[in-house]
Automatic annotation (TrEMBL):
Domain BTB: 108-272
Protein name in the entry: BTB domain-containing protein
Region (Disordered), start-end ranges: 150-169, 347-366
Basic and acidic residues bias (residue ranges): 150-159, 356-366
Transmembrane segments: none
Gene3D superfamilies attached to this UniProt entry: P-loop containing nucleotide triphosphate hydrolases, Potassium Channel Kv1.1, Chain A
Pfam family, one: BTB
InterPro entries recorded: BTB/POZ_dom (IPR000210), P-loop_NTPase (IPR027417), SKP1/BTB/POZ_sf (IPR011333)
SUPFAM superfamilies from the UniProt entry: POZ domain (SSF54695)
Length: 366
């Protein structure tokens, strides 16, 4: 009982458009499956009928505003659903977070020497983007030219002459010799057990800081001196060029570590028992948001710390963007020529200590 459909029974769009053109009438396509064009056919049929009636009843005012049959919009596939984008909590590789970076300082560029000789390693960019006080501290220019010791004077003079001869070949690796502190051969070595500077080296470091660095006792509370020196890396064991900051006797190790960890993560461990000491250190170092968080914990209003943490991350994100645009505290500079260069630089940057070691060796060769 079913009549088979022949090829001639199917009207192609080209044939329909040709017939509509010969008759001088609009052409519309419809699809019962997709419900496309059905409303267009009815609406424009009514417009065509009213337009024809307007020629016969031209005096009727309600027919003057009738539009002519409109063109049909092309059939488009349905809009795909929006892609669900899931942003991970951290984009760092290997599950590393700022907290792990602080506990295991890879490629540190600043060390804090406490009054008892203990060392705490950190990274300038984390502290400077989280605290205006540390940003001002690391922005101090150390431009004094140190005097050489008698036994090293002749050798260093020959090295400076050799560096001048190589200046034309090392224009892209410029290191200001005036800020490099040339100390005696023995650098600041730390004990692997407790990371404590030997007393002799501690006294030597104080003398170097007072002679070649800058005194900070009048600049702010908690800081004594700041200078540049080669310090043994706690991870690799190699000498690295770091900023050395000696701290006042008021700065105790555990509360100071908590303050630095807060500047890395933006969170406060409320289970610590020395909250009062943490608040005192935060007051001295002008980390006022941490002091407010401690006050909220002591007043049993810890729920208010969520807003402080949120504002901390927003402020640090804006500072990081500003640092990237201005190149503040930048450790390396690369010129991107192609995608291969970007991939090579990314591979190099993922290896801890690779770029910094190359930069240090280049600075020493100059």
């Amino acid at each position: 009982m079913v009549i088979p459909i022949k090829t001639t029974d199917i009207l192609r769009p080209e044939d329909g458009q040709q017939i509509a053109q010969e008759l001088g009438i609009p052409y519309y396509e419809t699809s019962v499956v997709a419900q496309f064009g059905i409303k267009d056919v009815f609406d424009n049929s009514i417009r065509a009928a009213l337009t024809a009636r307007r020629h016969l009843h031209f005096w009727k005012s309600h027919l003057k505003k009738v539009q002519k049959p409109l063109l049909q919009a092309p059939f488009l596939p349905p809009k795909p659903p929006p892609v669900v984008i899931s942003v991970p909590e951290t984009l760092l590789l290997g599950g590393e977070t700022p907290a792990t970076l602080f506990s295991t300082p890879v490629c540190p560029d600043v060390t804090f020497i406490l009054h008892d000789g203990q060392q705490i390693f950190a990274h300038r960019v984390y502290l400077a983007t989280s605290s205006s006080k540390f940003y001002d501290l690391f922005s101090i220019e150390l431009m004094q030219k140190p005097c050489m010791d008698g036994e090293k004077e002749a050798d260093d003079t020959g090295k400076r002459t050799h560096r001048k001869e190589q200046a034309g070949n090392t224009k892209n690796l410029r290191v200001d010799d005036s800020i490099i502190v040339k100390n005696p051969p023995v650098s600041l070595r730390t004990s692997n057990s407790n990371e404590t500077v030997n007393p002799t080296d501690h006294e030597r470091m104080i003398q170097v800081a007072l002679k070649h660095g800058k005194q900070l006792s009048k600049w702010a509370r908690g800081f004594l001196t700041i200078h540049l020196d080669y310090i043994e890396d706690p991870v690799t064991g190699r000498d690295r060029y770091m900023t050395v900051v000696t701290m006042d006797y008021l700065i105790q190790k555990k509360p100071f570590q908590t303050v630095l960890e807060y500047l890395y993560t933006g969170y406060l461990n409320e289970t610590q028992v020395d909250l009062i000491e943490i608040a005192v250190i935060a007051e001295i170092l002008e980390v006022f948001d941490l002091r407010m968080m401690v006050a909220n914990v002591l007043n049993k209003e810890s729920f208010m710390n969520q807003e402080i943490t949120k504002a901390f991350h927003v402020r640090r994100t804006n500072r990081i963007k500003e640092f990237l645009l201005k190149g503040t505290f930048s450790g390396m500079t690369g010129a991107m020529g192609s995608i291969c260069d970007v991939e090579m630089l990314s591979t190099t940057g993922n290896k801890p200590g690779t770029s910094d070691t190359k930069r240090e060796n280049a600075g020493k060769s100059q």
